[in-house]
Structure to design on (280 residues):
């Protein structure tokens, strides 16, 4: 399935050029009271769509696509997880700002603020435009069930699905998490493709164009740490919950964007999302 959130927090299944609006299925979600669980209720209960009724079909061209995950408990991100990106980061002072750039085994996984999440229809609103703001396209993994100390061999069993991620980044000397967490600096979309449709996340082409020019293109086969390895590593530090998002790293070719630019991010078997860049 391809599950989309759109417009005023509606949900549905993407088929062809439209979204089959099944927002009524949300009434099947378990009632929750404060203190709320550390998970996204919809991602934890995707089975509600199995017998859901379509009330209308909304053309994709008329829908404002939101992040397919409304309430991620945490956003985990893998730095320099492609060898060629590591090489370019070491060479480009505009990226490293004189700071030591470690390979992922030494750098570890970092966290981004959940308040930075938007969908492609909301766009990126740049802050600190006197500095370099870069695009970083990534495969995003959405966790589907709770787990801790997960073995790599079992890791894909804990995945709800996949989407495209943009890990927008302000370049500078500060900590990664600080520079990557402004509002709208984590774009997720265009929808969630359930795990059964992508049996091998290690064989997907990842690409981004800016104003029609290809800037990044690589295959997830070139990841230094694979998706199962990343899940296993993350779960050795954190309990993973439904709705947690894991950004798997960006390939070489990162570069600046400015207000007025349009990014088109594509991942094989998922789709594409068009994201406008504006000034905050």
């Amino acid at each position: 399935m391809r599950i989309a959130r759109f417009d005023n927090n509606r949900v549905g299944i993407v088929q062809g050029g439209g979204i089959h609006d099944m927002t009524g299925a949300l009434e099947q979600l378990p009632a929750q009271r404060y203190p709320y669980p550390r998970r996204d209720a919809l991602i934890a209960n995707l089975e509600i769509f199995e017998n859901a009724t379509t009330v209308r079909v909304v053309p994709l061209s008329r829908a404002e696509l939101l992040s397919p995950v409304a309430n991620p408990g945490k956003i985990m991100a893998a730095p320099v997880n492609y060898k060629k990106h590591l090489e370019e980061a070491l060479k480009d002072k505009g990226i490293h700002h004189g700071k030591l750039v470690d390979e992922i085994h030494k750098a570890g996984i970092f966290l981004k603020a959940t308040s930075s999440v938007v969908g492609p229809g909301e766009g990126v609103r740049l802050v600190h435009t006197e500095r370099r703001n870069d695009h970083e396209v990534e495969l995003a993994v959405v966790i589907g069930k709770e787990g801790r100390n997960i073995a790599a061999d079992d890791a894909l069993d804990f995945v709800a699905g996949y989407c495209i991620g943009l890990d927008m980044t302000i370049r500078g000397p500060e900590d990664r998490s600080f520079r990557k967490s402004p509002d709208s600096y984590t774009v997720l979309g265009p929808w969630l493709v359930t795990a059964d449709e992508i049996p091998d996340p290690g064989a997907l082409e990842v690409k981004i164009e800016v104003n029609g020019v290809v800037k990044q293109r690589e295959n997830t086969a070139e990841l230094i740490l694979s998706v199962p390895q990343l899940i296993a590593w993350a779960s050795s530090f954190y309990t993973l919950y439904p709705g947690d998002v894991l950004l798997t790293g960006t390939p070489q070719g990162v570069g600046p964007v400015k207000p007025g630019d349009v990014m088109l991010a594509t991942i094989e078997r998922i789709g594409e999302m068009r994201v406008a860049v504006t000034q905050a």
Remarks:
- Residues 148 and 238 are 7 Å apart (CA to CA).
- The helical segments are 83-91, 93-96, 104-107, 176-179, 227-235.
- The radius of gyration is 18 Å.
